[in-house]
Write a structure and sequence with these properties.
mainly alpha, 204 residues, 61% helix, globular, single chain
């Protein structure tokens, strides 16, 4: 089943697991590759991308990789390899940027690094909700199937409320929102709904 996955999704799974194993063997790798807040002395531009391949533990890795496994391949087959790769990295970059801005201008006392693929994963969730809005999902602990658009919308609202109120501290809520925002803008661009139209539309 793993080898039947779309190639970029499979390679992202391999890369995330391999880098996490390297992280376990060499914990100091977090210093140059995690996403550090601006102005703290540790930030480097490449961290905007590299932090998405670091994780805070096995459970953190497992949840993200499960979501990538469940949603990534289907989205990749629809968008195509090239555009799926662009989409994934746009989401993780916008996730990192929004998280940096939040820590710089709002939550300035929070100076620990951010790690994880969650920003890109939330971008994939957003894409699934937009591309298959009426797909029925079973979400624990809700004892009924709910449409994908409602799941994604509810999750986004929960992240916004959690991030602005301080509920569920220690979670990079604005990285999650940044991934969703980047994904939404890019999908709208590909649909031709922004003023600048792409050379080729992916979806009609």
């Amino acid at each position: 089943m793993f080898y039947d996955l779309a190639p970029v999704t499979r390679n992202l799974l391999i890369a995330n697991v391999a880098i996490f194993l390297l992280q376990m063997l060499w914990p100091d790798i977090l210093v140059p590759l995690a996403l550090w807040p601006l102005g703290g002395g540790y930030f480097q531009p490449w961290q905007i991308v590299t932090n998405a391949f670091m994780h805070g533990g096995w459970m953190h890795l497992a949840f993200n990789m499960y979501a990538l496994f469940m949603f990534g391949g289907r989205i990749e087959r629809l968008l195509g390899t090239r555009n799926y790769t662009i989409y994934y990295f746009v989401c993780l970059i916008t996730a990192s940027i929004l998280q940096l801005l939040w820590l710089r201008f709002v939550e300035q006392e929070f100076q620990t690094p951010t790690v994880g693929a969650s920003g890109a994963i939330f971008g994939l969730l957003l894409a699934f909700g937009m591309l298959w809005p009426h797909e029925r999902l079973i979400v624990f602990p809700i004892p009924a199937q709910i449409p994908a658009w409602l799941f994604v919308t509810g999750y986004g609202v929960l992240e916004l409320v959690s991030g602005t109120t301080g509920w569920m501290p220690g979670v990079a809520h604005f990285a999650h929102l940044g991934g969703m925002l980047g994904g939404f803008v890019l999908l709208q661009y590909w649909r031709g709904k922004l003023p600048v139209k792409p050379k080729r539309r992916l979806m009609r």
